[in-house]
Design a protein that fits this description.
It is built from 8 helices and 7 strands. It is α+β, with helices and mostly antiparallel strands and 186 residues long. The protein has a 7-stranded antiparallel beta sheet with strand order 1-5-6-7-4-3-2.
Length: 186
């Protein structure tokens, strides 16, 4: 297992948002990447309360270099790294990786460090001053996933994802979400 991720053997290569990018996304991916509301809420409209969160990784570790750069953090700073799988009745829907700096957790009154199996979206979309600052996309090749993950979740193709920088009272966090075939079917 990589020292700071259960999901990845190395950091994914993210593309910056530019006008032509939207046309390059497959139609079923486009609506998920540009969803403005909580992805959990969208999944629950289809699957109801069958949508559950499985915690794969929850540790204080340094983030990937690119993640630190997006959040303007020192590269060796420990942040809460949380990786989860959202599924419905065992059907994998979304893999997510969240980087929560300590100062963001403090501003959020520590709700973010004790989520347990509660979806992050249920908490952050309840903040009245939540800001979306930046959005990137990527397509993850099979080779970037760890063997531990591919043993647990059947991944047979490339997987599209989005990475969003959010801020609560000007304090940033990074949320990366990867859309499994089960989510793209909805």
């Amino acid at each position: 297992m990589h020292k700071n991720s259960f999901l990845f053997t190395q950091e994914p290569h993210w593309k910056k948002k530019h006008p032509g990018l939207q046309q390059k996304l497959p139609t079923n991916v486009h609506s998920w990447v540009y969803e403005k509301n909580s992805l959990t809420r969208r999944l629950r409209q289809v699957y109801g309360h069958e949508v559950t969160v499985e915690i794969l990784f929850h540790r204080w570790k340094p983030a990937f270099l690119g993640e630190c750069d997006r959040l303007n953090l020192p590269h060796q700073q420990f942040n809460l790294v949380r990786e989860v799988l959202l599924h419905a009745a065992g059907k994998p829907l979304i893999l997510a990786r969240t980087i929560l700096p300590e100062h963001t957790i403090k501003i959020a009154k520590r709700n973010l460090s004790h989520l347990g199996t509660r979806p992050l979206g249920e908490v952050i979309f309840a903040y009245p001053n939540l800001e979306r600052l930046e959005l990137n996309t990527c397509c993850i090749p099979y080779s970037l996933w760890t063997p531990e993950l591919t043993d647990r979740v059947n991944i047979e193709q490339q997987v599209w994802g989005r990475r969003t920088v959010y801020a609560i009272q000007k304090q940033k966090m990074l949320v990366s979400e990867f859309f499994m075939p089960g989510a793209l079917e909805t």
